[in-house]
Amino acid sequence: MPDDTDAADAMEQACAHCGADLAPPARFCISCGGAVPAEAPADGDTHDGPPADAGPNADPGPPADAGPPTAQGRSADAEPAANPPQRAADLGALPPPASGRSASLRCSSCGAVNVRARELCRVCGLDLDPDERTAVPPRPAAQPAEQSAAASRRTRARRRWWVPVLAVVVAVPAVLVTVLLVAGLGPFAEDEEGPLEPVPFPAERYPVLGEVLVLSDVATLTSAPPEDDRAFRPEGMVDGDPRTAWRSDPAELPEAASETVDLVLERPAWITAIAISNGDHHTVEAYEDAGRIHTADLVFDGEVRVRARLQDLGRQRQLLSLEEPVLSTAVRLQITEVTGGRATEGAAVSSIEVQGHVAEGEDTQLAEERAAQRPATGAVVLEQAPALPTGLPWHRPGQGS
Questions:
Q1: Where are the alpha helices (DSSP H) in 138-199?
Q2: CB 325 within 8 Å of CB 340
């Protein structure tokens, strides 16, 4: 009968375990996950082995006397389920998922489409969503690059402590040098034309008394014009003739300049004294008419200066003795004060001599080096003695009393 046939077909399409409808060719129940047994052969074709067209590896199926398996692997003769099976038609349509996701889910293994509520694929039995049932979320993968970068930053931070220290060490000297440079102090001070240190006299190498040193040149800043048959040239001081003399000309003297007498030695020497006939010793009248030196600075190489005061003793020769011999190649007599005469304010000198020891050996080279650095024409005053002793060593014949 048709009704009985349709009912039999419906029973064959229901799960033997839970009664849910099966959609062929399902191998597992979409409701309980139970295995669906293979279809029974047609009448007269029953046999214990696999179908004739099956391959050698075909599943022979369960034994004929075995009941349908259960989800727990029990046989068909086991105790029936407590609740009667319900068909899918009785359950009604499942509501759409609350999350708004699609109602179907495709198996990643066999590609079968399953409802979202299933946990196992209806075809191959694969767990459809294992991530939702993971109790402990997986630990994020380690990121060695980030950890290495953080460790590197911490290491650099620990090593940066010396940067400010180095900056201070460099900045302090730089600031100090800048201040000294701007102020012109310390090593950046302008090189002042100062005197050199006097050289100690080696007395053991010069045991004899000093002698008159030979001059190679004599010069003055000005000279008075001739009068009658007399000339007042600088050579009159060193020609050995007491009747000749040199006179200065204040009218020709440059402004703010002092009259000078330069005596250049033929050889470097240790100078011990200056012998001078102060004034014009030609006659008594000439002595009174011309001026006489009152104060003068004796300037030697290295700009060593000695202040000397001469006495107005008439036509007498005066000896200016140095307390310590001075190594030099020349001597300058820089006149700073003059005792005026009746006719002129200019100074006059009848004769002048330089006495001392001619330098020997290494003293000669040392004297030349000092002359190259600070010649006797320097401008710095170094007073070694406020007043030098004067002497009257002898009376020159024909020079008066």
A1: 144-159, 162-183
A2: no
Q: How confident is the model at residue 113 (pLDDT cuts 50, 70, 90)?
A: confident
% of the chain with per-residue pLDDT over 90: 32
Q: Cα–Cα distance between 21 and 297 in angstroms, integer?
A: 141
Instruction: Choose the weakest-confidence range: 66-75, 316-325, 374-383.
Output: 66-75
Give the closest residue to 245 by CA, choosing from 373, 341, 144.
341
- Rounded Cα distance, 200 and 204, in Å: 12
Nearest 5°: the CA angle 7, 9, 12 is: 110
More confident residue, 92 or 282: 282
What are the residues facing 308 on neighbouring strands? 296
Residue 45 binned pLDDT confidence (cut-offs 50, 70, 90)? very low
Three-class DSSP category at 269: strand
Nearest to 330 by CA among 373, 367, 360, 277: 367
Cβ atoms 293, 285 nearer than 8 A: no
**Per-residue confidence (pLDDT) for residue 38, from 0 to 100:** 67
8 A C-beta contact, residue 392 and residue 205: no
- DSSP lists the bridge partners of residue 230 as 227
Measured between alpha carbons, how far is 137 from 296 in angstroms, rounded to an integer?
110
Nearby residues of 259 by Cβ (< 8 Å), 6 or more positions away: 220, 221, 222, 248, 250, 253, 334, 335, 338, 346, 347
> Which pLDDT belongs to residue 138?
58
What's the distance, Cα to Cα, between the start and end of the chain in Å?
190
The CATH number of domain 203-391 is 2.60.120.260: yes
The pLDDT, as a whole number, for residue 186 is 63
Q: Where are the domains of the chain?
A: 203-391
348 sits in which H/E element: strand 348-358
* Dist. CA 277–CA 241, nearest whole Å: 11
